[in-house]
């Protein structure tokens, strides 16, 4: 009996390890520093003692995905594509077309993105974020279906334009996100936070239990990514960004002000420091996490997000990160006859 139980345990362990080793399509670079024994420890840490209760309670409304859930969640894929391409290229020098080509659904590759000159710690964070975005896109497509990847401009020229507009004059030399870790973190400050805003805004308008579970999982990781980026920058808030002699804190203030201006709906983003009355409970001027007077995350609508991402302040005028416009029925609705699923 003991030998049978031991064999059963080993079979279960092998099945668990096999399930964790499934590679992404066409594979991706494997971290050679990962201790191989960790997988075994993780596998043996569960199912100890009596069988656990792993299933959530039955939903109050037993509908997995409502028809009106689909468009808002598919719209979010535009930002997930953007983050995936930016982080993957920054860490690995390749994007979805090499890591998980089927997820692009035939959309064009991003332009201008490239491998960044990152220190080891920043590289590890960026690589993890990029691979997380692959999972996000896959989860959205599995739950509500997908939209093709839009044309995404992640060129140094485009990020230089963002910073120039944020400061109101041309930085000299032009800002380049790929030249070092600090610049890449500042460029990362520009985009992922918008995904967080979008998910907070989407939550009240979806109802399916699978859709809500998906959104909660996405929001949790997007918020975590934003917190990591802001914390890394907060540690260097008083440091001057070479060669501009402008502090990290001022960069974040200016980018936040630009997003608020392009979003056209008041303050929904703040830099790393704020006047004390805008800080948590009006008692502190540090601002590691951007939040409202009740310390709740700000929400943005698709129109507000597109105005920012297009860098035009107008959801009907593409540009910026989406030169040809974002994809999906919501984005197309703002473009009228200029864009449709058949164009």
What does this structure look like?
With 343 residues, the protein is an all-alpha fold. It is 49% helix and 1% strand. It has helices spanning 2-20, 37-44, 70-92, 96-99, 120-144, 156-167, 181-188, 192-202, 209-234, 248-263, 302-309, 329-335, and strands at residues 240-241, 246-247. The chain has a two-stranded antiparallel sheet. A hairpin with a 4-residue loop joins strand 1 (240-241) and strand 2 (246-247). The radius of gyration is 22 Å and the shape is globular. Mean pLDDT is 89; it is low at 1-25.
Descriptive tags:
343 residues; mainly alpha; two-stranded antiparallel sheet; 12 helices; 2 strands; disordered N terminus; Desiccation-related protein PCC13-62; Pigment-catalase-like
Quick recap:
With 343 residues, this protein is mainly α. The chain has helices spanning 2-20, 37-44, 70-92, 96-99, 120-144, 156-167, 181-188, 192-202, 209-234, 248-263, 302-309, 329-335, and strands spanning 240-241, 246-247. The chain has twelve helices and two strands.
